[in-house]
């Protein structure tokens, strides 16, 4: 006969075992959560973020001089407030990605002030892109258009803030460099220009289709060009050239464009638009071969489609159109995007861009040749039915 006490004991033993297992699981879970939370808090502190010498020596001093570190209201935004997403999933993704920073710490990628400065623009662009993508959510954890008292802002600030709220602009579009030193925004596109110059010097105009990288001289005959005589015109950046002859290190090129009746000395890329290709002497302008005529209703002028030939030196001419316009895109993003969000290129007409760039150039460090190139980049990239 089965002992009833043994059955009861077995049942109790089984329940105790289950209870112990559950208790151990609960305690282990609590310990894990507590440990995880403690680790997360510890690795998001200002002290942890600035514990390596790269951050402590390069970033911390400029952060301490910013309004995010010290201000009249006594509210401080630390590294994690700006650089770490507020949602759990985003935070985990960013923490995982940060392992790459540990890898580069071991490599010594930015372990000296010189190395850090060389990488500053690249690093800043990476952060800006991330903030653009998430609509500056970290900024909006503290700042909100809905709670702003525009009456207590300066007139200019209130105007810009209300415009940003209406158009849905993201904070980082206008507030780059607010917590850290702004990088040299020109470093990227000027480095690209140097590469293009080197490529031009190497190629020496050996392609059949070329583009002017900078303002270039043009002559009506080879002898005049060879002797360095007075130029017969200036070809502007971005102009497409077809090489029709080579002679003694010179190039005879053809430019397809448009002349407005009565203003034949100016060659433009598109009928009715001031996309300047070349400014010519009267003598050279008369040599242009007319291939067609049209009346433009918008400008109310007669236009002639022409082909102009002239001689040029193989200097600042490139065959890689894509690389040339990439240089222009980098210039536009770096210079015009440093202070405000970039307007879509098709927001203005090609002709309107001339006035826009002229109106803003005094706020930039662009040289005169760079201003001309920026104009060309923007004008040629305004959508049109006619391909450049």
List the topology elements.
Layout: H1 4-42, H2 46-49, H3 53-64, H4 79-83, H5 88-97, H6 99-107, H7 113-133, H8 137-140, H9 155-167, H10 186-203, E1 209-212, E2 216-218, H11 222-227, E3 233-235, E4 240-247, E5 250-260, E6 263-268, E7 276-280, H12 282-285, E8 289-296, E9 301-312, E10 317-318, H13 321-336, H14 350-360, H15 368-380
Antiparallel strand pairs: 1-4, 1-10, 2-3, 3-7, 4-5, 5-6, 5-9, 6-7, 8-9
Helix pairs in contact: 10-13, 13-15, 14-15
Your description of this structure?
- With 388 residues, the chain is an alpha+beta fold.
- It has four domains: 11-41; 46-183, no CATH class; 203-318, no CATH class; 321-380, Cytochrome Bc1 Complex, Chain D, domain 2.
- It is 48% helix and 16% strand.
- It is built from 15 helices and ten strands.
- Strands 1, 2, 3, 4, 5, 6, 7, 8, 9 and 10 form a ten-stranded antiparallel beta sheet that branches.
- Helix 10 runs antiparallel to helix 13, helix 13 (321-336) packs across helix 15 and helix 14 (350-360) runs antiparallel to helix 15 (368-380).
- It is elongated.
